[in-house]
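chain and backbone:
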Amino acid sequence: MRQYKSLIVFFILTGAIALVGSQFLPGEWYTALEKPFFNPPNWVFAPVWSVLYIMMAVAAWRVWRRCGVDTAIVLWAIQLVLNGLWSWFFFGMHRIGLGLIDIGVLLVLIALTTVSFMRRDRVAGYLMLPYLAWVAFASILNLSLWLLN
């Protein structure tokens, strides 16, 4: 049971970022933007992100249990901060271009984190793949919004 107490710490870390991001929600500004045809409905984002944050926490916890705080966990922490900053840049500041820069760097860091996790714990690496795919999609969406607006 003691080993699972540390999992709670990773849930708290990812939950804190989710909480920060949830302070900047789509509003009238976002509703007024011209959107690409593949833009998902707003209700899709909360359940998808909830599952992704859980998977990210479990992945980081598995790597931490195996390796402690090493390069992989540092990469995970940095990408987690960039994840939270995106909501502030995009929804909070209404800066689509700044969000695009952030999400571009975020995507690279997620890829590096995924590779690092895969080398330390295959399950952890696989747990990061849906997150990588979703942020790749979100990057295309962000780019499309920037081009259209």
About this structure: The radius of gyration is 16 Å. The mean pLDDT is 94. The CA atoms of residues 117 and 135 lie 17 Å apart. The chain has six helices and no strands.
